[in-house]
Amino acid sequence: MTYNVSGVFSGKGCAMAKRMNNTEERKKQILDIAEELFLKHGYYGVNLDDVAAGASVVRGTVLHYFDSKENLYKCVLDRRAQKSADLLVALMVNKDQPVLEILRTFVYFCMRQFKEDKDDTDRCFGDENMRYQLDCVRIGTYYKLLDPFEALLERGNEEGVLRIVNTRARASSVLFAVFGLTGESISTIEVTAELYDLIGNMLGVDLKSV
């Protein structure tokens, strides 16, 4: 509720907030249904009418929020990636854990989230014709992680466990290498071993013995 210049309370602020909340909730509902259907039937096995029916809205409502099926798919990928990015950022800024312990957890998380999530995406969300969508999302995640990962490397220098001169360049190199590796079609065991060796070598530490 807002207060106008004449001293009279107005309900317009509450109404606008309610409409905004309803809009965000409706978008979330559509995304939830779309993700469930894409996972179950694959990108080409789902149409906008299926999503609309599942969300109890009309097709026009889905198009109002997302413009097209392809954009809806990208928004689903964006949201999945954002969840992973949020968890990784929370891990990197945790001052209660030593840097080497965080780096070891980072390797495990990358293996689980990026490798297995990629497998789900490849299997359920589309084929190679849609791969560029996933690549765009992964690049966006890279930029979200760059600053906190650089800060983590700087803290490693302060703790004396790392000796990196240009932390920005090294953070960029490591993240690009990780995204490239986890995008390959190799087994989880292989990707895990490579991640430990790759990150350990690039940072000059033995993560396996942490």
Helix content: over 70%
Assign the CATH superfamily of the largest domain: Tetracycline Repressor, domain 2
Q: Which sheet architecture does the biggest sheet show?
A: 2 strands, antiparallel
CATH first level of the largest domain:
Mainly Alpha
* Gyration radius, in Å: 22 Å
- Mean pLDDT across the residues is 83
Unreliable stretches, pLDDT < 50, 5 or more residues? 1-10, 16-20
**Largest beta sheet: what is the strand line-up?**
1-2
Number of strands: 2
Approximate strand percentage: under 5%
C-alpha end-to-end distance = 55 Å
Question: And the CATH topology of the largest domain?
Answer: Tetracycline Repressor, domain 2
Question: What would you say this structure looks like, in words?
Answer:
The structure is a single chain. The longest helix is centred in the N-terminal third of the chain and has 30 residues, at 12-41. The protein is elongated. It has two domains: 1-67, Homeodomain-like (Arc Repressor Mutant, subunit A), CATH 1.10.10.60; 69-209, Tetracycline Repressor, domain 2. It is built from eight helices and two strands, in the order ββαααααααα. Helix 1 packs across helix 2 (48-54). With 210 residues, it is mostly helical. The chain has helices at residues 12-41, 48-54, 59-66, 69-92, 99-124, 131-159, 167-182, 188-203; strands spanning 2-3, 9-10. A hairpin with a 5-residue loop joins strand 1 and strand 2. Strands 1-2 form a two-stranded antiparallel ribbon.
